[in-house]
Every structure is written in C-alpha cells, then in structure tokens.
Specification:
About 0% of the residues lie in helices and about 40% in strands. It is built from one helix and 47 strands. Among the domains are: about 210 residues, Single-stranded right-handed beta-helix, Pectin lyase-like (Pectate Lyase C-like), CATH 2.160.20; about 120 residues. It is mainly β. It has a 24-stranded parallel β-sheet that branches. Strands 5-8-11-14-17-20-23-26-29-32-35-37 form a twelve-stranded parallel β-sheet. Strands 39-41-40-42-43 form a five-stranded mixed barrel.
Length: about 500
C-alpha cells in the first residue's frame, strides 16, 4: 500500500481470528475450516491449535456441529458462536464437550467461551458441557448448556472467573447440577438461568468469596442454590422458585450474606440453614414455600448447630397457594445459639401455628411484625462481678460504680438499677447473657407474697429473686402466671420489661 505524508502507514491491530463453518452453515464460503457433519470436533480443534501462542478467537458460524471427542482450549483463546443457532451436539457417551485444564501454579488464563449452544444429546449422553480445571480470569457467557449427564458448567480449582447470562437446563439426574463450583474462589455467577436440573441449579462445594447475583434457579430436583462447606460468599438478587427441596440451602457454611433474594413455592423451606454460623440473611422475600405438604416446612428454617446468624428485614408470607408454610421463621433446636431475629415482616405467615417458632438458646427477637410480644427477647452481654457464680433466673442489677457493663445482685426491694435476669450460668468475673426484655420461664420469686397474673415484679430483700412490686417501687417484669405458695421460693412464667415504677 502506498504511503505519504497525507496517508500515514496503517498498523494492523487485528487479533488472530479463524472461522469454522458447519456442514449446514448459511454462508460457509469464507470460512477457514469447513465441517462435513462427521467428527466436526476435528476442524474446531484444528482451528484452535492454529491460533498463535498469544491467543486469538475461533468463530463458529451458525449450524450444527457433531462432536465425538473433547475440544481443548488454551491460554487466551476464545471460542465464540453465533448464539443459540450455533449448536454443538454428540452421539458419544460420557463426552466432555469443551475443556480447559491447567495445573497448580500453571493455571490457564484469559479463556472465553461464548454465544453458543451445547446439547448433550437425547437421554443426556455427554458428561459435561464445559469443564474448567485450574483456569483463572476467564469467561463463560451466553452459553446454552443442556442435557448433560453430569453438569452443564463445572469449575474445579478455578478462581476469578465470570459465569454470566448462561442457561443450564435439564442436566443429569441425581447429584448433577446446572453450574457447579468445586474448590473455586472469587468467581462471579450472574444472570444465569438454571432450570430443571437433576440436583441443584447452582452448587458451591468448598468454594469461598464468590458472588452469586441475579440468577434464576427454577424447578430443579434438589435446591435452587446450595452451598456446602463454603464461606464468605454473597448470594443476592436471585429468584429460586418451585425447586423440589429448598430455594437456598447453606449447609455447614459460615459467614455468607444472603440478601434480596426471592424464594417462592419451593417444595421445602425457602431458605435453609443447617449447621451454619455467622451468616446474614436479610431483605429476602419468602412466599408460599412448603409445597410438598402444608405445615411441614418453613419460609426460613434454621436447624442443627446454627449459631449467631443475623436474620433481619425479611418478608415472609403464607401466599395464595393451597399449601401453606409451617412458620415464617423457625429456629428449630436448642443447639441453635445466639441468633438474631429482628425487623422481619411475618404478617399472615405460619399455618395453624405462629409466624415465629423459637426453640433456640439465647435468641434475640425484636421488632418483628406479626410476632407476639411474649416472644420478644433481648439480651445484654455483661460481666459478673457479684463475687459469686450466678444461675439462670437470678435477678441482677447494674453495678452502681463499674468499669464497664458489670452486674451484681441486690437485696434492696425496688432497686432501680435492676434490669433483668440471668439467662445462663455465669461464673464470677466471667461474661454471659442477661435477658433484659421478653418472655422467660424461670424467673425466681419471693415465696412470701402472693402473685397474680398481670402483677408487676420487682426486687426482693432476698438477693437474686423477685417479688410482687409494691406501690412506688421499681418493676422489671410482668407475671404471666399466678403464684400462691407462701412457704418457699418458687418460679413463675414472666415477661421481662423495661424497668418502670409500679403504681
């Protein structure tokens, strides 16, 4: 090409691109490789292998490609189709269609698979649609992966990848998933549709710090989204509907954030936490779950040894379907410790039972719509400096002069420093929980005074117990049952309240 001062030399900035045509492509004439409909993987692999070491793109034109052997991708390679009218299919059992495999310390990077359909064949003949192992900083986008015997998209030991806007449908039977991350961290899974898969829509196993955002997981045989031994993940803005187990399941998974999701019409619970700790479950909408049988599952279900989870700002509804949830929120076992249930909207939830069930230990329950006041419970974490061990049910006061939030016992009737009762045994100089509001079943009372339902309870002249508050004395509880045995100290059911003057 002639050059001059008016026409400077043109620098070729085009990347390496090779074109492959199917046997039935509409315009195959300008393709670099022409398939004949038999063993089309040969031409696709040849095109990938012909790219320079710096990478490049292989473009698959419209049409059907019959692939009977695995296609392998390498550093910085892109395999791109023309959308869903570029179809890879097979008649070979247990096939892995597209694979990229690096190693520990020799990870592959910069791989892109986009804009094509991978069909495992009638009866889910192939094993995987896409298989990445030790692949980082890569992208799988706008891929329609269906009818594979194992997983639609599978990542093993692969980090910092983008899995976006894919459809994984009808993959496998039991133990097979739409998208499966195994020991893979810091990936983003966004805008995908995972529907009708044989196990979970999206499954994370031993995978941490991933973002699962804006996906639709519907009608899967197990869960919409399932985490197993996976922590510090963010699950946000997903729709999990009509799955045959749970909408979202966190199994032995800690420190995750589950927010702004919609879990509706799932056969079991909407959100399920078995043996999972320190998770934040906030701003989710859970409606009409328990669709296998009325009154057997909950909108949010916490079970096993699940401790210190923060469950707040969720909306739980019974919904308009015939089958109804058992509870809006269910803290199901005494081994669930220290969970926080606050500011949830549980109006019109809970079939024939209640919006909330709390069988846990030291559950803080406050400001939830639809929850009875007797279920509200607040705790303070304080230090026992009374000089003796305190037992559950002991009445305590704040120390008049204290270095911090220290407590002791009182022998002053109507003591205005009293603020609650010990909720668990606390050794001297140790920290523990004092219940400062809400229902209790073990408030110890002075046996010298009859107590009627509704009486205000204040402090007695006997340390660590309460009595019916006299006029003008400070009260910290309301009696929910009567006590008329004047012979000895007893125990009543009482509602702990903010300390106030008796009238």
């Amino acid at each position: 090409m002639a050059t001059g001062k008016d026409f400077p030399a043109v620098v070729d900035t085009r990347c390496a691109t090779l074109v492959v045509a199917a046997s039935n492509s509409l315009h195959p004439e300008n393709a670099d490789y022409q398939c004949d409909g038999v063993n089309d993987h040969v031409e696709i692999q040849a095109a990938l292998d012909a790219l320079p070491a710096t990478g490049g793109e292989v473009k698959l034109l419209d049409g059907t490609y019959n692939c009977e052997a695995q296609i392998n991708l390498d550093f910085n390679q892109t395999l791109r189709g023309c959308g869903r009218n570029t179809i890879l299919t097979t008649s070979t059992a247990s096939l892995v269609f597209l694979s990229a495999v690096g190693g520990a310390g020799t990870e592959l990077i910069g791989i892109t698979v986009a804009d094509l359909q991978i069909d495992g064949g009638a009866g889910t003949i192939s094993n995987y649609g896409i298989y990445f192992e030790y692949v980082d900083y890569s992208t799988i986008q706008n891929v329609y992966s269906q009818r594979h015997a194992v997983n639609g998209i599978y990542l093993l030991n692969s980090d910092f990848n983008q899995i976006a806007s894919n459809t994984c449908q009808g993959n496998g039977s039991d133990d097979n998933n739409g998208i499966y991350l195994n020991s893979s961290n810091s990936n983003t899974i966004s805008g995908n549709t995972c529907q009708g898969n044989g196990d979970n829509g999206i499954y994370l196993n031993s995978s941490n710090s991933n973002t699962i955002l804006g996906n639709t997981c519907q009608g899967n045989v197990n869960n919409g989204i399932r985490l197993y031994i996976s922590g510090n993940n963010t699950i946000s803005g997903n729709t999990c509907q009509g799955n045959q187990a749970y909408g979202i399941c966190l199994y032995t998974s800690d420190n995750n954030t589950v927010s702004g999701n919609t879990c509706q019409g799932n056969y079991n619970a909407g959100i399920y936490l078995p043996n999972s700790n320190n998770n934040t479950i906030s701003g989710n909408t859970c409606v009409a779950n328990s669709q296998v049988t009325t009154n057997t599952a909950d909108d949010i279900f916490v079970a096993g040894d699940s401790d210190y989870n923060n469950i707040q700002g969720n909306t739980c509804r019974a919904g308009a379907l015939v089958k109804k949830p058992r509870y809006g929120i269910n803290i199901s076992t005494a081994t669930c410790d220290g969970n926080l249930i606050t500011n949830n909207d549980l109006y019109d939830d809970g079939f024939g039972t209640a919006p909330l069930n709390d069988a846990g230990t030291l559950t803080t329950i406050s400001n939830n719509r639809g929850v009875q006041i007797a279920q509200e419970k607040n705790y303070a974490y304080v230090k026992n400096t009374s000089g003796e061990a305190l037992a559950a049910g002991d009445v305590v006061t704040l120390k008049a002069v204290a270095a911090g939030n220290e407590i002791t016992t009182t022998v002053t009737a109507g003591d205005q420093l009293v603020f609650g009762m010990v909720a668990q045994a606390i050794e001297d100089t140790n920290f523990g929980y004092v219940q400062v509001k809400g229902k209790t079943v073990n408030l110890k009372v002075d046996g010298t005074t009859d107590i009627a339902i509704g009486d205000l309870i204040g402090t007695s002249t006997t340390a660590k117990i309460g009595m019916k508050a006299a006029s003008g004395k400070m009260a910290f509880a309301v009696a929910l049952e009567a006590y008329t045995n004047d012979d000895s100290n007893g125990v009543i059911d009482a509602l702990i309240i903010t300390p106030r003057q008796a009238v």
